[in-house]
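Internal QA ticket QA-208
Title: Verify multi-chain structure generation after dependency bump
Assignee: T.L.

Test input:
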Amino acid sequence: MSGSCHSHKDYTGRSLADRPASEFSGKTIRGMCLTQMAPDTVALPSGVTDCVLQDCQLDNVLIPSGFSVVRGSTRRFLAQPDGTDWIVDENNQPVSPL
Amino acid sequence: MGVSANTVWEVRSSATAAMVNGGGFVTGASGTDYSQQDSAQYNLTGCTSAGAGNTLLTASASSDMVGNIAKAVSGTNVTVGWYEITSVVAGVSITFSTNGAGTSIATGVVAAGAVNIGGALDFTGSGIDTFLEQVVGGNTGWVKSGTYTHAANTSVSSVLSTSTSPSNFMGYTTTRGDTCNGTDRPLFAMGSNTFTGGQYQNWCNFRSTGISASPFTAGTGAEVRNCFGVNTSTTAGRPGLRGGSDGLITDCEAVSLAGPAMDTATAGTRFIGNYLHDSNIGLGIGSSRGQAIGNLIHSCTTAGIDESSVSGTANIYANTLYGREAQEGVGIRIATNAPSNALVSNLIYGFVTGISQTTAQLKSNFGRNNVLYNCGTNATNYTLDSTDTTAVDPAFSGPAQLTGTTATISGSTLTQTGAFASNVTDGVSYLHVLSGTGATVGIYPIVSHTDDVLTVTGTIGTNATADKVWYIHYGTDFTPTGSV
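Actual output:
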């Protein structure tokens, strides 16, 4: 495993889905923030093998095969107008406050 | 109680993960400062004790440890937390301070105690609030340039910093105390998490991004200087930076795509000399005694300053409020029944309405010496003072907008031939989409561009009809050259 140019980068709300798989395969990405507004957002590329996402903020990001997650955050949530966002299940039903 | 007031903390994104290091050293202590390195100098295991108290037994005890902060991480009868090493019997024992709550490191006979001495903190992951809650008034925290991705909410409830003895966290670039501006400032990438600092914990030279209802909120009485907060949520009302009660935000920059760039929900917050732009609202004053002085606010969809508190009593002095050349929103908006707001010496330019109160003016609201120009309506439910003027163009030096009405959109791109050949800066400029078939109206950070195509964060929509109306503000020299 080697490091990645995406470690310690802030991509909040942005998509990396169009980046080449070679930027991820065999790499360990540390401390990246890729949080998305809506659950199951496609923000990572497909076709990646053996990529470790460590201590990354991945809330609402759909994690494709080929990635593994170490610590960090992978919650599904929905933003609410009153400011209290909710963790939701696979059917987007509320589970608990974020 | 807790560590010394003379403790200096070190935070680095390259430090050992999960906040497991000591992270601090007491200025003037007799030992060696091991906090300014990524890893702990000592990772002690197998510590024991004779019973409850502040002393652990270990053959590794060494006099150079004195003054370092230790992180107790695990062990039987070990209270996890940060402790100052106050004395050492070499080869025998280490004596610690209590933690911030006044609790000793050993609550009984310790076995298999694990303690890390030295090494910086990483400020990544969870446990940041636990750390900040034991910081003592007088402490200084140095945070090195880098990205700190938070994986949990941080909410600091602590009274260990006070108005007479605050703690100060400061970003630096490569050497403590050096110049730290722009993207050199440490970045708190909050994602969906919230951050609420402790009382009288001051923050200087930071950036924060996020989409939560509170990516960066200062604590009571806290001062925030030279920070930049961005909230990219598309949910309304979420601030870029939020001030604390009787706190101060000064010399900062903020953006919120669907909310206020800066705001306060508590009384007495002062906003002085800030730069607020490309937001739904520039500055939201949501409680009494707010002070807005000398701020520069431009390109805000709904209002430059929104005084939304029914308690009123805001002082709004000497701000430059600029909508856009084609007019947009309200310069200063005052809520229904909000009394005793003072509007003095503000430049209000380029708004649909310059000053507006939601319902009939309360006469305790007053103003003088304001300049209003290029406003469709100067005032609604508000009577201008005889010292206010509407006839003099402040003739600002620099601000202008790129505009267009024939763009098409596809996902995160907006296309109009030749429209972006100049005056667009990636990572700095913002696209305002005003209307168009299939377009989601809003503000979008520009990620990259060619002469013909903008790529933004977020999805504008996909539609080939060439009717998208947009603008991009450029030019930040708001020096008035007119006779104002």
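Spot checks passed. Chain B has three domains: 7-117, 128-380, 400-474.
Status: verified.
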